[in-house]
Structures are given as structure tokens and as C-alpha cells.
Amino acid sequence: MTPKRGLITDTFKVVKKARRGGKRDKSPSPPVAEPEPPQLSEREKDLQELKKFDLDWKFGPCTGISRLQRWERAALHGLNPPQEIKDILLKESTDPEYTQSLWRDYPL
């Protein structure tokens, strides 16, 4: 038979460390105020919506055509593209940032 094995505390003396300074009354820290997100301009909001439209593949590919052409093609095929996208595109029909997709600078 093997001898009964004891606990490690049987061999080594348990020593508790003394706390420094004892208990202190800490006042709770004030809650951290969350910074408000920056307000986006009308242009930034519009471009953000157009970017979402570019990234949504349910309206078909968008390389090689303008956003308005893509919107019209999606409507022709019954894919129900958002009307607000068309409104944005018609409002800013001359600005290339509005009319061209995200991938306008990449050749096919």
C-alpha cells in the first residue's frame, strides 16, 4: 500500500499577506459620459446611403454603369430598389461622387 498523501498545506505553512493601509473608503468614480457621435452633413448622409446601395448585391452588379442605370435596371427586373436612392441621384445628377459607384476607379 502507498502511504496516504497529505495536502500541500500540511507541508507548507499558510501565510496570509497583510493589507497595506487597511480598508479605504473609496468614493465611486463618476460615470464616463459617452461622446456624442458627430453629426453628419446632408451630403455625407446621402453618400453613406449610396454606398450601402453599391454594397447591396441584390440589385445586381454595379461595375461599368452609373448608379442611376443600376437603379433603373433593378427596377426593370422587379428587384424593388429604394426610391430614396433614385431621389438622391436625380437631385445631384452632375456630381460624379453621386452618379458613379464605389468601383468607378477600377478598370474591368
TrEMBL record:
Pfam families: DNA_pol_delta_4 (PF04081). GO terms for molecular function: DNA-directed DNA polymerase activity. GO terms for biological process: DNA synthesis involved in DNA repair; DNA-templated DNA replication. Residues 14-23 have a biased composition (Basic residues). InterPro entries: DNA_pol_delta_4. GO terms for cellular component: delta DNA polymerase complex. It comes from the Eukaryota. PANTHER family: DNA POLYMERASE DELTA SUBUNIT 4. This is DNA polymerase delta subunit 4. It comes from Cirrhinus molitorella (mud carp).
